Amino acid sequence: MTRALLVCPEPLGHKQPAGIGIRFLEMARVLRDDGHEVTLLSPDGAGITPERIRDLTAAHDVAVVQGHIANELFAHGRNLPTVVDLYDPFIIENLHYHASRGPEVFAHDHATLMLSLQRGDFFLCASDAQRHFYLGALLAAGRLNPAAFESDPTLQELIAVAPFGVPSPRERAPRDTDAPRVLFGGIYDWYDPLLAVEAVAIARERLPRMTLTFNTHPNPELTPQGKLAEARRKAQDFVRFEPWVPYDDRAEYYDQFAVALLTFPQSIETDLSMRTRVFDYLWGGLTIVSSSAPGTDEILERYGVGAVVRSEDAREIAEALVYAVREEVSTRAFVEDYQWSHTLAPLREFVRAPHGTAGFSPPSSGLKVAAPRRFLARLKRRMGGSS
Fold it and tell me: Which of 35, 75, 346, 367 is buried most, with the most CB atoms less than 10 Å from its CB?
């Protein structure tokens, strides 16, 4: 049995976790089911203090951490094997906040990511696209090096894909297709809620009782609310704003909706994201209409559980919504494939036998810096070419 300390950056006491909180709750459950002793530490309750970090790391065999709270763990904790969960590419998401919050956000994000890449022993990400992105970052941080490559040419022992997961399959209640409710969910600044409002307004020409629901964030202090404010200003009479639903109550909440909708502009954030709500909405049995994003596209198309709209044309989105409301779709195959016990397999394997790798440095090449021409000539000779 391993003693695992999970350090979650998101408050959990209100029982309304967002994506990161959900992931940590499910990590804790899966590891407990494996027979490990698990402590889940979050900012609420007694809080995450230097003293608690020092004492808890001394009493555990492995730590799992995500995001900026890793700075506190590495600053105050005992050195122990540490899994850094990189599923949420915060440094890319937060590029949206430069205009409103200035350069300090990126500077802090960059320093946090570099420290985590240097100090972590094993890394998790959510997709192949993310893995390639983080392999580049690990190369820049010195962790992808000749020694690491010779030890494991696949680098699976350094960074592995562990997508978001879902609970056990559930039966869904019948949908209301006469007065269909469309669920968007929480609004972050990389979404486009105004496009969603416009699309539903057009869809109401054919389904006049259709409504659109946004959810207000349970931790508004953790993320800017610019797009939410825009949505409130532009909301029409068919738009509803409802509180974030407690995690244990969300299944019954999802049963109130006929379809889910995601709209967002194209960006590097879109390329690297694996949106939590895609997984949870499909677990809830909801068909999804979404703007195009590599990870989301692949899931919706492979399982036939939604429609991808590869334009920002509100009429095309409206057409997809009307079709999705009228089409009966089963998400069960997706749910069975993405059980948390499957998606978290790399974490489970590491926790069974935690080990340190951060101190494993590459051997010195002995190559000294030379003037450009001399360096090129020496390199050609070493490779058997002419000078």
Answer: 346
Dist. CA 35–CA 16, nearest whole Å: 26
Q: What is the DSSP letter of 384?
A: T
Beta-strand ranges (E) seen in 3-138 are 3-7, 37-41, 62-65, 82-85, 122-125
Do 103 and 143 belong together in one domain? yes
From CA 331, how far away is CA 43, in angstroms rounded?
Answer: 35
Distances in Å between the Cα of 274 and the Cα atoms of 113, 136, 343, 355 are 18, 19, 13, 28
Which tokens go with 320? 């997809």
Residues 344 and 325 in one domain: no
Q: Could you give the 3-state DSSP secondary structure of residue 213?
A: strand
**Per-residue pLDDT tens for 185-214?**
999 888 999 999 999 999 999 999 999 999
Residues 209 and 317 in one domain: yes
Residue 135: phi, psi to the nearest 5? Answer: -65, -40
Pairing relationship of beta strands 287-291 and 82-85 according to DSSP bridges: unpaired
The count of structural domains within the chain is 2
Q: Is this prediction's pTM over 0.90?
A: no
Task: Read off the pLDDT of residues 262-298 as tens digits, 9 standing for 90 and up.
Answer: 999 999 999 998 889 999 999 999 999 999 998 899 9
Burial class (CB in 10 A: 0-12, 13-18, 19+), 347: buried
